[in-house]
Design goal:
By secondary structure, the protein is an alpha+beta fold. Helix content is 51%, strand content 22%.
Length: 172
């Protein structure tokens, strides 16, 4: 991601802490899917998989969203179960990981669910399952969304994005 986007995200993380930052990043990613032309986007703040995104042409993804400053992310039994449930509905299950380091971007990994085990998953292990075309498609939209909304997020936090996502879902 570009340096401005990284700086905006760093300011948000520093203000709200890593836990809330993860929820904010998830909502920003959902908005980026809307911006990329996905007509059906569902962001779940609590139960189930984090984000569903579908296009009319049958591109259907279900994402478990993680943020980290390190080299791995935790995956729970519940995360895996939620991905399996959505995969049964025809969605491609993805781990969407944002490593908060300069010049890092979202990593979308279509890891075969039978290979996922609860515990810590190394980012290097995910790289061979990357959907680089989807990453390249979403990256500029994510940067645009962050740059457009970061001041609103800093002022009002997660509630600001809940309102924006509600407006978007009513439009579609």
């Amino acid at each position: 991601m570009n340096t401005n986007t990284f700086e905006h995200l760093r300011q948000i993380r520093d203000k709200f802490g890593p836990g809330i930052f993860g929820k904010i990043a998830q909502k920003l990613l959902a908005l980026a899917f809307y911006e990329a032309g996905f007509h059906h986007v569902v962001e779940r703040g609590v139960q189930g998989v984090d984000v569903d995104a579908a296009m009319e042409d049958t591109s259907r993804y279900t994402l478990e969203v993680k943020t980290t400053g390190g080299q791995s992310v935790p995956i729970s039994r519940e995360n895996i179960g939620a991905l399996k449930d959505r995969a049964e509905d025809g969605y491609t299950p993805l781990l969407a990981v944002l490593r908060m380091q300069m010049f890092e971007d979202w990593l979308f990994a279509a890891v075969p669910l039978r290979q996922l085990q609860p515990g810590s998953v190394a980012l290097n292990r995910l790289r061979s399952y990357r959907l680089t075309e989807l990453e390249a498609f979403i990256r500029p939209k994510f940067e645009q969304i962050v740059d457009e909304h970061w001041s609103g997020v800093l002022a009002r936090g997660e509630h600001y994005l809940i309102q924006i996502l509600g407006d978007k879902s009513r439009e579609h």
